[in-house]
Please model this.
Amino acid sequence: MEITLKNLTKVFQSKKEEETVAVDNLDITIPSGQLTGLLGPSGCGKSTTLYMISGLLRPTEGKILFGNEDVTPVPPEDRGIGLVFQNYALYPHMTVRQNIMFPLENVKMDKQESLEKAQEIADLVGIGHLMNRKPKQLSGGQQQRVAIARALVKSPRVLLLDEPLSNLDARLRLQTREEIKRIQRETGITTIFVTHDQEEAMSISDEIVVMREGVTQQVGRPQEVYDKPTNLFVAKFLGTPPINIFEGRVEKGNLLIGDTKIAKYDAEDQEVSIGIRPEGFKLVEKSSFHSEVEFVETIGRDTTLIIKHPNDESQTFRAIVDADFGVEPGDSVKFTVKPHKMHVFNSETGEIV
Amino acid sequence: MLEDQSNVKAWLYLLPALILLSIFIFYPILNAIFLVFVEDYNYQTGHYVGFTLTQNFRYVVGDFNFRRAMLNTMLITFVSVPVSVIIALLISVWLNAIKKLQGFFQTVFFLPYVTNAIAIGMAFAFLFNRSYGLINWFLGIFGVSPINWVGMGASWGNAMFSLLVYVTWLGLAFKIMVFLSGLQGIDKQYYDAARVDSASRGRVFRRITVPLLSPMIMYITVTSFIGAFKAYTEVIGMFGERLGPPGDDRALITVVALVYRALDRSGVPGALSEAAAAALILFAVTLVFTYINMQVSKKRVHY
Amino acid sequence: MDEAVYGNEKQIKRKQMIRLGVVYAFIVFFALFIIIPFYWMVITAFKTETEVFTSPPILFIGLDPRNWQWGNFGAALEQAPFMRFTLNTVVVAIIATIGTVLTTILSAFAFARLNFKGREVLFLIFIATMMIPGEIFVITNFITVARLGWVALDQTYFQALLAMTIPFMTSIFYIFFLRQAFKTIPDELYYAAKVDGKSDWQYLWRVMVPIAIPTLTTITILNAMNTWNAYIWPRLVTQQEDYRLVSNGLRDAFDDTLGVIMYHEQMSAAIIVTVPLIIAFILLKKYIMRGVSRSGIKG
Model:
């Protein structure tokens, strides 16, 4: 069941009459049965959006539709949603079983049925053997699964997760994000999760929505958004290591950094910011695009060259190359750029050129 | 080397407190045990007749006043504490529900804690005055004729009732403070989660608020019981050294009052042993009830 | 999260208003219950004798302070030397509090910062003794104080002061309270000070104490308040009325064995005794309430 957000806006008023626009006219459709990630830096409005979808926050303007149903006036308890809080919000005084069964108490379900359903869901998320424990006896990862189980037990139409991985340590994060993906696949529920970690979003989402200061930046499949960013912000936000930015200009069909022509480019003359992915450099014998290598980092298969930035001597940029080249610090290297790894944005608007 | 130095140094820091505590806390505990088992002890000469296992206890328990004191103390404890706790709980829940003026009312409810038990006790006594007090005037509105609460010839029941009202009133402040603090400490997220889980108001209160508050409730109940067993100054506040309405001396005597009455007769051989015996009996009773209290609470308290 | 409201806006808003109104009503009701004794005390203190002894009681004495009987306070002061008692109480409070604060700082430091053999055992012993009721100590302390010659019939003022202060120069409760505060000071500060060549003594007084001033203030205030309200012990160990403290003075002056009580004078005396506490409360509310809640929540 897809979710449509129309003109969704949320304005917060502080005590001093200051207004903060947390979410600004969001217009997106979240596909049914898929795992969608709301991605963006702190304060971009992603959690606010999530809570509006849940009903715990009322939008200032706009509508939320579940399928064809306008749920904007419907309270959270009647929307059929499951919500996993960032801190899990497990009732500390109840056992795992009681926590999972709590939502069912408020629905007319016969005790035996509830018990079975709870066990079923617990098994699905992998904590079926911990039913008698109390939350504080569980690890972070286990607690989170309980939270997920509690959200799923009432067979919600939508599953919402607020920063599900931020409280976990690095190793657990990898494991858990796969779990989330698996659970979503098995249940087929439309799932939305919020995160500020682009790697996380990229790895498991079927679709991502990149947000910034309350405004949608780009929507699409992760690889698409990575390969074809529509603005500078999205290009900078996605990708590890991050994209390298060079200031330059388009002049008479040529792309120039400083006085160096690095490529032909068909566009109007303008000041631009050129984004080149670290993996977008090719070392060559002859090229006008060159600079001096400061450091070389070899990690297993990849070698990362840290090279003096042409715009600013005190800065550097990164290029990932094959290990075979045998480059030393101090060497001068020349490269060409793979065109699909280079993105040119107008310096003023940040939009793609 | 360093370790040794650290030990000596630490004990040096503790020395002033330890000296004082040894003289005024540890030694008295041991001495109290000594006193209880000694016969006709005269503290001025240090002379005593012999040792006895039970004489001092029998003396205390046999005293007519002891039975009265026990009854009064039990009544004060088992009536004022539950009533006070329940009212405090309700008030805290209500206070937690309002935003405006919460601070103001919190201050108001805390006032009884910072007052002098004797000064306010006197005010209460006058409130309950038969002819000129506010209570009888108020009851008069409903057609009740003036009751003699604390005056000459007042019945034990009436006097005890007024005392109970006073003690309950006095006990509210601290409890409200602790409960309110506890309520405010409950993470709002639990309420949000419950909301998403479609829990009704009543269910949220019963299954989430009260269990999460239960450690405070137990703490308050246990300490309030312990405190109520020691009731004495409150009685002095309302009734003076007489401990009862005029003409009925010691009607509202408490066990602690017994201890101090014995102390007043310190010159009399054996009086101090009586005091010690009474104090120890009280301590034992308190321990037993505290233990029962804690056992009962164990099932209901969630940490 | 601020509660999002749903449903027919007007209806829901009205239900919420009503619910809120009911809650306020109950709160106000109980607040009145709390305030009435204070109110009664105050208006009685400002009434004339005839106004006091009327039935039905006068509930309102008008807002004009000129009609209020300030003279009652004068009369109350004549009933008993309240100034003298206040002075005594202040002196005792100062001595006892200084003593307590000093011993508490030293002991809390030892428990919080120093590692020494027997620390755990001593801690447990302290906790155990906290559970023992005060009455048990009083008996022997009386004997001790008498043996020291401080409560003889020809007791001097100085001896009375000793008897009223020395036994209370330390408190296990405050030691724990301060220890808690000391424990929140990060170890790193201590190590940094050590590296800078500071001794423990210097660290205690130059770093820990200044950081713990709020807690120490709370202790001082609570201790002072307890002294102000002290009744039993001062009465027990003083031979002359003149040596006694404010609560004793109040009770003794208006003891109703002597017939009818002049309530207006009694209440004004009660106010004289209560007002300093209320003023202290208003000014130092933060410290008092924090002290109470800290001890409360710790459980």
